[in-house]
Design a protein that fits this description.
By secondary structure, the protein is an alpha+beta fold. About 25% of the residues lie in helices and about 30% in strands. About 35% of the residues are buried. The model has no long low-confidence stretch (mean pLDDT about 95). Bound molecules: zinc ion.
Length: about 300
Amino acid sequence: MLAYGGGRLDRAGALRTDPTRLNALLDEPGTVVLPLWRDRCLVDGDGPVRLTAERAALVRSAAGETVFLGFDGDVAVFAVDLSALDERPAVEMAGAAKSVDVRALVGRLDADGAAVQAYARGLLHWHRQQRFCGVCGAPAVTGGGGHVRTCTGAECGRLLFPRIEPAIIVLVEAPGPPGRCLLARHVGAAEDAFSTLAGFVEVGESLEDAVRREMAEEAGITVTDVTYQGSQAWPFPAGLMVGFRATATSDEVRVDGEELLEARWFTRADLRDRLASGRTLGRVDAIDHRLLHDWLSGN
Ligand SMILES: [Zn+2]
């Protein structure tokens, strides 16, 4: 299971159109309210803080959006945004010790805990970015349990939904033996930091189109056999990472010099050497880590 997805939360989408029920749930003593501050979790010594009903009511009266995330078993889960406050007052109001990025908590949070924090982070981020209608410029107000905003312009009234920006991430294999995969050093990366190739999907492209275009643009290679490997929720702030494997038609690589400084073929022995020297293959919480380890194990 990849980090940030697959949480056990039932999103209970049908309830989003029932504000009376959602308000009643917010007043129930067992309800969980997760406070966030500017994309960061608010934590104490035990991990992300869960507000008690009393404190949640206090926080909601002073804070920004409250969004309904779903049900964890019988327990309703909401998130509340304290971004309007400075950090110290936000931390204190939540009864937390400090703020931490969810990505820094991977390994300490269980999979469900990471998934719900990432979900809350992405949804609250969108509210802060979608305060106005992009068509008429009027303010937009929240609704649907925090899953839609509505333009208040009298002539407009457009519904605005959370945006997701898909990106492809690709493990490219060499055309012939020995088995090799292509890793690249990105502009700004450390001297020996090699990673898989990736890029955003453009308007009017399929995911496979985006793989072929990005590999041609960034590394000067033509790829075939573009095969889906899996996807990962990546709400940092609004991504969806879609993993592929593809095969180059030639060993010849020509980097663009703008996004990539260098791209090289690595054998499985090369990757094992990198692991043996204490480096990781990709970021441990990200799909490229899995793409590389799947390939390394011969799958
Ligand atoms: Zn509008």
